[in-house]
Design goal:
The protein is an alpha/beta fold. The chain has 10 helices and 10 strands. The strands form 2 sheets. It has a 6-stranded mixed beta sheet with strand order 6-7-8-3-9-10, with helices on both faces. A 4-stranded antiparallel beta sheet has the order 2-1-4-5, covered by helices on one side. Strand 1 and strand 2 form a beta hairpin. The termini are far apart.
């Protein structure tokens, strides 16, 4: 296993955001984390990324204990992450933004620039475009590009495909597939069920801090606990009428 998180819990005072969650990810997998808002998936995700220290549990990456390691140590070990709200260096070009990530592995400026240029080309961005001119799709793509420039073995995508039009979403799915084809293992937090159903082979479902289901996306969306906690009554009606599910519904 490339990543093994065992009995991970996170408490904020008397509130337990994550309660004894386990996750094992093999090299080359794409695993999804889903659940309603406040379910604990983002906190668990942040523990894996090194941005939040777990209260209990252990996180191993490629045989190395990274439970208490800093975000910088995670990055150097080969764990990269995006953020729900992508941050951009507004006064820098796309290429210069991506170079920020490149410097982790390529300390010399020319080497970092050439490496960043190859990542920009892969992600379909314009290298000379100012960061401030990017809309939501471009900023999300830039966030992915900057992380890829650190040459991660494990890529953690935090709702990196949210807020896109249907066309933009298909382009983003294609990009994630291209990244995966290069050998990068991926864990993705996402609310868009089309993304989960299309990209992942295995899913963990969180609710109120607990993992309430685990398995293939096709299997977990049929579990009663998942329907009640996350997908809603509309999903059950679609299942009974054999209509395709479009994702979580109110109620």
């Amino acid at each position: 296993m490339l990543l093994e998180a065992t009995n991970v819990s996170k408490e904020f005072g008397s509130f337990r955001a994550v309660a004894g969650a386990d996750l094992s990810v093999a090299q080359g997998e794409i695993v999804g984390l889903i659940g309603p808002n406040g379910a604990g998936k983002s906190t668990f995700f942040n523990c894996i990324a090194g941005d939040t220290l777990p209260t209990t549990g252990r996180i191993m990456f490629d045989g190395q204990d990274v439970t208490q390691a800093s975000p910088e140590a995670h990055a150097r070990a080969g764990i990269g992450r995006t953020f729900q709200v992508p941050m951009t260096f507004e006064d820098m070009t796309v290429l210069e933004n991506v170079m920020v990530g490149s410097f982790l592995r390529h300390p010399h400026r020319n080497d970092a620039r050439e490496h960043a240029r190859s990542i920009v080309e892969m992600t379909g961005l314009r290298p000379d475009q100012p960061g401030r001119s990017l809309g939501t799709p471009g900023r999300k793509r830039l966030g992915i590009a900057r992380v890829l420039a650190t040459e991660p073995r494990l890529l953690l995508l935090d709702e990196a495909l949210a807020g896109l039009t249907p066309t933009e979403l298909q382009e983003a799915i294609a990009l994630v597939r291209r990244v995966h084809e290069t050998g990068v293992t991926i864990v993705i937090v996402e609310h868009i069920m089309e993304v989960i159903m299309t990209l992942t082979k295995r899913v963990l479902v969180f609710n109120q801090g607990y993992v309430i289901a685990s398995g293939t996306p096709q299997a977990v969306v049929r579990e009663e606990a998942v329907i009640e906690a996350y997908l809603g009554r509309a999903h059950r009606r679609q299942e009974s009428s054999h209509e395709p599910s479009q994702g979580p519904q109110d109620g």
